Amino acid sequence: MLSRQTSLIGLATCLASAIPAASQAASDNHSSRVYHIVFLKRDPARKPLSKEEGERIQSAHMANILAMADRGVLVAAGPFDDTPPVISGVFFFTTPSVEEARKVAEADPTVTEHRNTVEVLAWHGPAGLGEEYRRLHKEKPDTPVDMGVHPFVILRRGAHEPDATLMAQHAAYWAKLRADGKVLAAGAVEGDSSVAGIVIFDRIPDAEAASLAAADPAVSAGVLTVEAHRWWCAAHVFPR
């Protein structure tokens, strides 16, 4: 059995290695980088708003999203569609630090107006996130945004300790799903005591994604647990 510190380091390494597809060619096309993911979580103290106030805040929120994208800080974003709602939406930032990501996120109108709070995680995702989207929409501004739902899984640390064999199986499992086109991205989260990794599926049915996540050897062994969400994202955001 690995020590707790060693096991957590190994867990992060194995999760990060699951990002590329299994083949060398796919690995070359899907190198990784660190993004700062900001979850906009519903403020427990948020109060009911009039229709006019809600529309004002939403309009300002969307204007801020466009401004962050224009600055190159924001490379992906979208709302969550869960019942009951807990996470309002997510930002993917290219900021140099968690602190900078938090500063940028806390300037969003939904935060300054006390509708949301922020949670920031450092995540190993595929390099080039958002590049194809920007290129397509620059070349042809009328390219459809084509929003669609992606099962979004947060892998949290479970009660059991991992071992090297199990985590190798875990990494191989997600690499195969990435190669098979079921998963758009899977990577480790750094510096968080409860979240080990994040997996974003392609536009597959929720039930299929739940079944695939449950079949992860590390989940089956109780090393990881699954927190499932539904995330709306535009087409062409993730490199394939």
Describe the protein.
This protein is α+β, with helices and mostly antiparallel strands and 240 residues long. The chain has one domain: Alpha-Beta Plaits (2-Layer Sandwich). The chain has 9 helices and 8 strands. Strand 2 (74-79) and strand 3 (87-93) form a beta hairpin. The N and C termini lie far apart (37 Å). The relative contact order is 0.21.
Topology, pairings included?
Layout: H1 4-17, H2 24-29, E1 32-42, H3 51-71, E2 74-79, E3 87-93, H4 98-105, H5 109-112, E4 116-126, H6 131-139, E5 148-157, H7 164-179, E6 183-190, E7 195-201, H8 206-214, H9 217-220, E8 224-233
Antiparallel strand pairs: 1-3, 1-4, 2-3, 4-6, 5-7, 5-8, 6-7
Helix pairs in contact: 1-7
Strand content: 25-35%
Oligomer: single chain
What kind of sheet is the major sheet? Answer: 8 strands, antiparallel
Question: Unreliable runs, pLDDT <50, ≥5 residues?
Answer: 1-29
